Amino acid sequence: MRWSAPVRYSECDDQRVVFNAHYLVWADEASNAWWPSVGLRWDPDGVCGVQPLVKASSLEWSSSAVWGDVVDVVCELEGIGRTSLTLVFEVRVGDRLCCTVRSTYVATRDGVAVPWPDEVRAAVS
User: Fold this and answer.
1) Percent of the chain as helix, strand, coil, to the nearest 5
2) If you placed Cys at 16, which of 37, 60, 67, 96 could pair as Cys (CB 3.0 to 4.6 Å)?
């Protein structure tokens, strides 16, 4: 799944380089598009009766995106466990890798971790 956006002036520092926190925002935007791309409906109540919450995210930079670039964020499932799943996001400008974001989401209901519903497992397998 691919999500794209132009780098906006407000996302950059004085050197026109994207401020690091925006890579997480772009990963979050791409994750919202990933669910429907695997056939699952995302709504304010979550997906399939559970609310996926970010448990952890890590970022590894390779190069900087700058004002005027268009970033493409490619999102893929790295793995799914009983209550968590990990998505990997590659943020690119053309063929150039800028950043890899790895985010682990936990399925929750009423704030408590629960197993992913069978419908989710079937969709991502």
Assistant:
1) 20, 50, 30
2) 67
Q: With contact defined as beta carbons under 8 Å apart, do 65 and 2 qualify?
A: no
Q: What are the residues facing 114 on neighbouring strands?
A: none
Distance of CA 95 to the CA centre of its chain: 19
- Domain of 11 in residue numbering reads as 2-124
* 5's tokens: 């956006």
CA–CA distance, 73 with 94 (Å, rounded to integer) = 11
- State the total domains in the chain: 1
Are 26 and 5 in contact by the 8 Å Cβ rule? The answer is yes
pTM of the model: 0.94
Record the tokens describing residue 88, joined without a space: 């990997």
- For residue 43, pLDDT over 90 is answered with no
Domain with 31 in it: what CATH number?
3.10.129.10
**Which uninterrupted H or E stretch holds 117?**
none
Label residue 4 by pLDDT band (50, 70, 90).
very high
Instruction: Please answer whether residues 30 and 89 qualify as being in contact, where contact means their C-beta atoms are separated by less than 8 angstroms.
Output: yes
